[in-house]
Design goal:
- It is a single chain.
- The chain is α+β, with helices and mostly antiparallel strands.
- Strand 5 and strand 6 form a beta hairpin.
- The radius of gyration is 14 Å and the shape is globular.
- The termini are far apart.
């Protein structure tokens, strides 16, 4: 049996105090209540960087430019019905103030507190990379 591969781009927004932004998955979505790095599915004919620029504007009301997105690592995780491939970028500079646009809760967490937030299985291994970087 072959599983469909889903490409999702994620971003670790890091503020001036070295905290990382997490967003809670809203009710009604798969894995609701879990905390994740903002981002979204890469659409057809779209690059992961373009996805993040679009999604961060839609979800958080901020403007990010491509040179501010630095690739860090990626997650590869098999869920029961699909395979998730998720590049993780780090962004330390953006325009605007983070303001959730879709009713989701957000939290700024110090790197050593990221494990205090229950995350989807694909996001969990990314925490170690962020802790080593920050």
């Amino acid at each position: 049996m072959s599983l469909k591969t889903v490409l999702v781009a994620a971003c670790a927004l890091v503020d001036a105090d070295g905290r990382v932004l997490l967003a809670e998955r809203p009710a009604g979505k798969p894995m609701a209540g879990l905390w994740e790095f903002p981002g979204g599915k890469v659409e057809a004919n779209e690059r992961p960087e373009d996805t993040l620029i679009r999604e961060l504007k839609e979800e958080l009301g901020i403007t990010v430019s491509e040179p501010c997105l630095a690739p860090l690592t990626f997650a590869s995780h098999v869920y029961p019905d699909f395979h998730l491939l998720m590049p993780l970028y780090v962004c330390r500079r953006w325009e605007g103030i983070v303001a959730p646009q879709e009713g989701q809760r957000v939290a700024w967490a110090k790197p050593n507190r990221l494990r205090d937030y229950k995350m989807p299985p694909a996001d969990e291994p990314l925490v170690a990379h962020l802790m080593a970087l920050l």
